[in-house]
Structure formats: structure tokens, C-alpha cells
Amino acid sequence: MAELPAVAGADRATAHRYFDDFALRRLPAALATARQDTVTAAMAPLAEMFGDADGMVQLSREQARGRAGNFEIIEHILRAQPGGVPSTWGHHFDDYLLHAPITDQHRKKIAHQAALIESALGSDPADVPSTAPARHRPPHPAERVRRRRRPAPGRPALLHPADRLVLNDVDPDALQHALTHLPPATRAQTAAGPGNVLRTAARLAADHGPFGLVLAGGLFDYLEERFARALIRTTLSRMCRPGGTFYFSKIATPNPYAALMTHIGRWNLVERTLADIEADVRAAAPPGTVAGLDITADATGLTLFATVRCADEPG
Predict the structure, then answer these.
(1) Are strands 303-310 and 290-297 parallel, antiparallel or unpaired?
(2) Nearest 5 degrees, angle CA 260-CA 225-CA 209?
């Protein structure tokens, strides 16, 4: 199961077909008939070799910032430049991962979130795609802001003087990275609130809220049910203003790449169905706080976008 065919001269398409078969058929089949620790041990030589490519596998397995899905791996996904020595299996595998649906869903998620931000700020979001081509790097969210800060004559700027943006992350370096990539005018209207949002949500609301848009990104991919419901409850009761919007995304189940992510990348996600998300919001939302809930899948079908419309007058 851990052996690879000869790599010399293998073209990109052949390598991608091999990895598709490995990720979506052979590895899940092995897990269905063998103990997980046996499969993990068998995968160790492959994981080590792929990790040498200085790309997705290395970043996710090292978890240098305490978790696999940190801002550095997302930046690697956005750059879409595979690591490693060309024509080696490590390079081929990183290239495969960077163009696989499980990675493309990150680009689509970011593009969708950028459109939500522009819409919340009152700008015309029509020129921001809700999806991005699978093999093209979408603009970094900060680049979108930068472009809109140079509006065409007669068009409004993205931010009005009274607008305020508040960023939260448990990793201070992630916040600094985001602030560094914002143009000065936008950075002047942006505050950073570091800390674990499960502990700091109430303080963020007190210091900066309530908010017209609360955007949680992929955070819920890592939250078990009780933590997800606790954050939904706090967001709807403390952070969202009446008539505001609360958005979060969630990896859908079944995730066909789960075996690959777990046994090669050490990247574990909490999968949910559409019905699970509906149940979480229904159970967690304080009475009278929700006017509507929309849940849609991205173009890959691997991620669910949940948009909660807050009631104009709670209660």
C-alpha cells in the first residue's frame, strides 16, 4: 500500500491520476479492512517523503502553530506554487493537493467571504466572484480591499469613515500578517482582538460590537458540537446587531479526503451535515434572535456555507 511506481519521467496528469486513486479508493479501502494504527504506520514512509517537499504535508504535519489549518498553510494554498524538486513524488503530491477539490474549497470559501464583507460594507459585490477557478489563485482578501481603495471616478470606496473592521485569531502572528497586508487606509479602520474566541467573544462584543457581520470562516471545522453551539449562542446574543448577519462554514460529511488528511497530513476536521448545522443553530439560538438560516454547498460540494440572518428586534 505504501509503495509508489517509478517516478522518473512521470508527467503531471499521470501523477494526479495515481494520487486520486490512492486518496479516494486505495487508502479508504485499506482503512475499511485494517486497524487504523496499522495503516498509519504503513503511511509513515510516504508521509515523510511527501513532507520533504516543503509544502502542504510538511505544514500540516508540523503544526508549528498548534494546529494544521493555520494562516501559513492557507497562504500556501492561495499561492498555489508546489514545493519540492520538480519531477519528484513530493513535488507531484504537493501539486496534486494544491489543485484537488479539498484545497479548492478553501479558495471558494475565501472568495465567498470576501463578497459577504463587501456586501456588508454597502459596496457593489458584483465584481467579486462567489467562486474562483480551481487552478488560478484568487486575489488575497487584502488585495481585494486594496483594489477597492482605488475606486473608479464616481464609485464609492469600500470603507466609509464610520466603518470598523475587527479581526480575531488565537495566533497573534496571524493577526499581524493580516494587518500587514492591508492598505494603510483600511488598516487605520481595523482593530485586532487576539485570543481564543470561545473565551473572548463577549469581550469583543463589549469592546467593539455589536456587529453588522460576524464572519467565522473555517473555525467551525474544528469545533465539536458543544463548543459550536456555545459560540453560536454567544454570537447571536452578544455580537450580532439586530438585522445583522452571522456566517460560518463547515466541512461537509462524508469528506472523501478525510483518510488522506488524517493519515498523511494529521489534519483532522469535524464533519457535519446540513441537518446537523440546522440542529445546532436551532438548539443554540436564543429565542427570537434568528430571522432565517440559509445553508448552501460550495461548487466542490465539500463545504457548507451557513448564513444566519438576525432578527430586526430580538425577542
Answers:
(1) antiparallel
(2) 110
Instruction: Please give the pLDDT value at position 144.
Output: 40
The H or E element that residue 304 is part of is strand 303-310
- Euclidean distance between CA atoms 19 and 295, whole angstroms: 31
Q: Is 291 helix (H, G, I), strand (E, B) or coil?
A: strand
pTM, two decimal places: 0.83
pLDDT at 152: 43
pLDDT tens digits, one per residue of 195-250: 999 999 989 999 998 999 999 988 999 999 999 999 999 999 999 999 999 999 99
Q: Where are the domains of the chain?
A: 10-151+195-315
Q: Which residues contact 283 (CB under 8 A, 6 or more apart)?
A: 229
- Which residue did the predictor score with more confidence, 268 or 155? 268
Q: Regarding the domain delimited by 10-151+195-315, which CATH topology (the fold level of the hierarchy) does it fall under?
A: Rossmann fold (3.40.50)
**Which sign does the torsion angle of CA 72, 77, 81, 84 carry?**
positive
H or E segment and range at residue 214: strand 211-215
- Phi, psi of 240, rounded to the nearest 5 degrees: -85, 135
3-class DSSP state of 296: strand
In SS3 terms, 36-47 reads as HHHHHHHHHHHH
